[in-house]
Design goal:
Order of helices and strands: EEEEEEHEHEHEEH
Strand order of the largest sheet: 7-6-8-9-10
Largest sheet: 5 strands, parallel
Low-confidence stretches: none
Radius of gyration: 22 Å
Helix content: 10-25%
């Protein structure tokens, strides 16, 4: 059977194979970016079972823990299906490295795009993040330009985040980026282009250059934060 890794969405649907004249019911649609994020592919397994997929961290909404929830756990005897010698694995050594940031779990994310202009200007976002106890993210264009590190990239080819507050600074809002942050609680866009696509999904839009707006935000929060 096949396995689709790093899916950004899972759906159930039907598929018609016109060549074979067959209709498959209730297949698992395994949706993920392909070709470097330039297209979104929908992958199916019509014939083979099981249908398997892994999902990118942050895509699924975390539900509130219910201590009383009971699920059915079926423990199969693997030896009945394959010889144990086929799965001999030895762990030689283990390395644990502390995470550089908590982008996926942060309640507030400040993200910068190509419109930030330089890596130095990104320092403003880190200064604002310090005042708001937030994490800093970036669009793919900003990462490609060298303004931010790759592990901070948000979008289809980066991480998916769903913070309570998302502040997008100098981000135009390509569909690949929006896919990674559209589930945020409140979205604020800081952009000098009033027609930027991200403004269409933003709850609040601050129309102006990031070089002027962000220092004002930093000054305000420094004066008013307890």
């Amino acid at each position: 059977s096949g396995l689709t890794a790093d899916c950004t969405s899972l759906e159930i649907g039907d598929h018609e194979d016109k060549k074979e004249g067959k209709v498959y019911k209730d297949l698992l649609y395994q949706i993920r970016p392909a070709f470097g994020g330039n297209i979104v592919a929908t992958i199916i397994n019509p014939e083979h079972r099981p249908q398997m997929a892994t999902v990118r961290e942050g895509v699924m909404k975390k539900e509130i823990l219910d201590a009383g929830y009971k699920g059915e756990v079926i423990r199969h005897d693997v030896a009945k299906y394959v010889p144990e010698t086929d799965y001999v694995v030895k762990v030689i050594e283990r390395h644990v490295e502390k995470a550089k940031h908590n982008l996926k779990g942060a309640p507030i994310v400040i993200a910068g795009g190509y419109g930030m202009g330089s890596r130095e200007n990104f320092d403003m976002l880190f200064e604002l993040a310090k005042e708001l106890h937030a994490e800093v993210g970036a669009s793919r264009a900003a990462v490609d330009a060298g303004y931010a590190d790759h592990d901070r990239q948000i979008g289809q080819t980066g991480v998916t985040v769903r913070p309570k507050l998302y502040i997008a600074c100098g981000i135009s809002g390509q569909i690949q980026h929006i896919a990674g942050m559209q589930e945020s609680g409140i979205i604020i866009s800081v952009n000098n282009d009033e027609n930027a696509p991200i403004n269409a999904i933003a709850d609040y839009v601050i129309n102006g250059p990031v070089e002027e707006v962000i220092p004002k935000m930093i000054k305000y929060y420094k004066q008013n934060s307890k």
